Amino acid sequence: MKRIFEVNPWTITSHELQPADKRLQESMTSLGNEYMGMRGMFEETYSGDSLQGVYIGGVWFPDKTRVGWWKIGYPEYFGKAINALNFVKAIIQIDGVTVDLATVPYTDFEVSLDMQAGVLHRQFTVNGVQVQVDRFISVATKELADLRWSFTAIDGQTHDVQLTALIDGDVVNEDANYDEKFWDVLDAEVTNDTAFLMTRTVPNPFGVPQFTVAARQRFVSDLPAIDVVQEDKQVGNVFAGQVGAATQRIEKRVIVTTSRDYADDTAVKHATDTIFASIASATYDDLYDAHVAGWAARWEKADVQITGDEAAQQGIRFNLFQLFATYYGNDARLNIGPKGFTGEKYGGATYWDTEAFAIPVYLGVTDPAVVKSLLQYRYQQLPGAYHNAQQQDLAGALFPMVTFDGIESHNEWEITFEEIHRNSTIAYAIYNYTHLTGDRSWLENEGSEVLVGIARFWADRVHYSARNDAYMIHGVTGPNEYENNINNNYYTNWMAKWVLQYTLDNADTFTSAYQEKLAISAEEKAQWQLIVDKMYLPEADVKDVNDVERHIFVAHDTFLDKELIPVRDLDASQLPINQHWSWDRILRSPYIKQSDTLHAMYYFPDAFTEQQKRDNYEFYEPFTVHESSLSPSVHAILAADLKMPEKSVAFYQRTARLDLDNYNNDTSDGLHITSMTGAWLSIVQGFAGMRVRDEQLHFDPFLPAEWDGYKFRFMFRERLLEVAVDHDGAQVTLISGDPLTIDVSGETVALEVQ
User: Is 481 a catalytic residue?
Assistant: First the structure.
């Protein structure tokens, strides 16, 4: 496979500028700090193909739902994180020629993302002047973006250099319904050494608040300021002078503030000056060092070290870097979009990916407060979940598949109306937090309100089949989105049953205030128990693709009636099927986009026997095309659980380097942020076999044949552990916290800090 970035443990580096891969390069070198982020587009003029993107956490727009045939219950709008004002835009002129690497000759090109420090570095030489650009978005001062240009004449001559540093409010979104622009300029000002621009989202008819975003830039420059730019939607400062062998630097500091944090536009504007005042005495090195220290603290808990396979090492670090650049739990109003700050696809909204895939990672590599913020996010949006259920004429709470504010904002009927399995994963997140941390406080307070709302939804969404004397759920789309409007999806039914049972098991432990608020009657509990006892969960004896007898859980009512041709028998030219087949053909096929029946076994591996897991894995995996970026990690973990190391490692390799190697040929749209959890999950839950059973932490590690060893740290109940696995076996060390007894491959190990 062709790689445009070099394999290096800590950097994403290329010495080639390939116009056909420019968008891919931009995605791969994205930066963020949870508060804001941007693609790795060039600051200076680039007339070739590019996707310019700057995004602000929590700032979005409700774009009108556009469908040919309106159905009652449709969301009125599709929410999207819109491209915000471009505060890194610049024009560079060398000896009067505008630098545009799409048209002017250049040498000495390099683009490099330093993942350890969280800094993007670029370099090129035009007409004898070497230009270096360093960019970071501070994790120490969330509103700060810092850019530094360095100009050096390397040909022994003296050259005229001019830099125009801009803030541009005239930005577009490629996915706008009607080629709309979403921003109005409210205020603009410019002086010799600073420029300011304030924008507000255009009015909308849906009652969604308008957002104000402001940016102010200031400079520390070796070259003098000579002019300013002030246009309708753009402001800037111009610096110029002669450059010789001595490097001349221009540092641009940008402070970005929003109406999410301030009461009115005056306060938004004033805050830019206040924050600048707080860093006025800091040098570039001071700001840089504080930022790097913030990343060092994250890596101290989260770094995974792999020896013997640099590509795997680069993959896991890249995934963790981009995940933390998107979210680190500092703002409970924010969540994790599937593309994060790296592109427009999926609208930047929250999906079930967070609870299914991201929370398990954050539980292991951050303080519990980070996951508490994610739980709080859903709790704050509980009113929206009740609204969503009411839109479908149902009781209880239906959490959205796609949202910014708790209101469902996805405009495809098979998602909005049918992919309701996402509701159970919100409950699973509460269980997962409680199970891993041992902290029941959330479950017994705010979490109880979420659980009961979801339980009441399922109790109303099921129906009783008198012919079968069973409760059923019809008209759904399971995790396998290649089957719509099916009946009795095994995973959906199993999880609905689990939610009801889990809520029943814990109802008496809810605090008295919440028991009074929720008022669960004895009759309601009895009905929930009846549904649990009589939930329809079909099973069958079948032969797998190798003609071996298997006892399986049937994916849905008609799955076994399909023409069961395994993926291995398809012509390779037909893959991926979502790029070659009509949707009708996909729906009629047996092909599984991502884990479906198997997903319950991923969530609850100890709820199924080894034979049940093996039978279902061996039957369903041959029909799975893994055309969701979320699919490989689940199969890696299950394969490891079933002692299939080669399969487990193969799936790890796919999830770890999904974007680095552009497996799905779609990374140019943006990175697959939520699936970046898969590499860590594959190593920790898969290769290392991490489980919590009866309140005790267990590991059952194996070492991939291609590796010499791996090491990771893991947070567990106020303790930090380090797990190291190599050819000599496994060693677990307690780095901090109280003594702990764990199980390693069936042996009890007592741990104390040395």
Answer: yes
